[in-house]
Amino acid sequence: MSPTHAAQAGQTADAQSRPRVEGEREQEVLDAAIDILAEVGYDRLTMDAVAARAKASKATLYRRWNGKAQLVIDALTSQKEPMTAPDTGTLRGDLLGAFCGMGGLTDSRQVAILGSVITAMARDTEFAEAFRRDFIGPKKAITTEMFRRAQERGEIRDDLDLELVAAALPGIVLHRTFLLGDPPTEELIAKVVDQLILPAVTRG
Which residues does the UniProt record annotate as the domain HTH tetR-type (predicted)? Predict the structure, then answer.
């Protein structure tokens, strides 16, 4: 065997021998990525740092993820419980149920993580596309479904642009959080729902 072929064979054997990241080990890596994301933000997160925190080799991470954008998206989606739209019988109850508490706008860790990726979305188109599709997309779909059900109950107007109104509540609350410094409390969310959202969408 020539030296070149021997080297190629060695590289192939080495690649095959490196452990794959899966199961509990995969979740450990994803948890490490979330911790670092919350600590330093997306821009300063590196594959080296995640590998070190998870006690894994960088080569092992690259066997599973092609870069930090894919890793961070998988880490973000791994933190979420299976999403279902609350069905309380009223739009107000559904909105408060969805946006207050764990995983909602009053979940300080979730909001901190969201804040850590906002600047990256303006510069990293690959990450922005994946984040909007895989993280924001499911949340937006659930909110739209709550408004659609309210429409079917006759609770709100039929002429609404549901895509537009579905983004109103999180848009207002997050604007106040990141730009005005108001914490996203249950009281703030209830005020936005009662004073802005419901008057805008209900009949009469």
Answer: 23-83
Instruction: Give dist(CA 84, CA 193) in Å, integer.
Output: 20
Length of the chain: 204
Residue 108 tokens read as: 């300080």
Q: Report the CATH number at residue 74.
A: 1.10.357.10
**pLDDT tens track for 171-181:** 999 999 999 99
**What is the Rg, in whole angstroms, of the alpha carbon atoms belonging to the chain?**
22
| 187 contacts: CB under 8 Å, gap ≥ 6 | none
Give the separation between CA 140 and CA 126, rounded to whole angstroms: 20
Q: Which domain holds residue 40?
A: 3-78
Predicted pLDDT at 130:
87
What is the SS3 assignment for 134?
helix
How many other C-beta atoms are found inside a 10 Å radius of the C-beta of residue 117?
21
CA distance 41 to 39: 6
Angle between helices 23-40 and 108-123 (to 10 degrees): 80
DSSP code at position 23: H
Q: How many CA atoms lie within 13 A of 83 on its CB side?
A: 20
Helix (H, G, I), strand (E, B) or coil at 185: coil
Residue 18 clears pLDDT 60, i.e. is over it: no
Domain closes at, from 31, 46, 78? 78
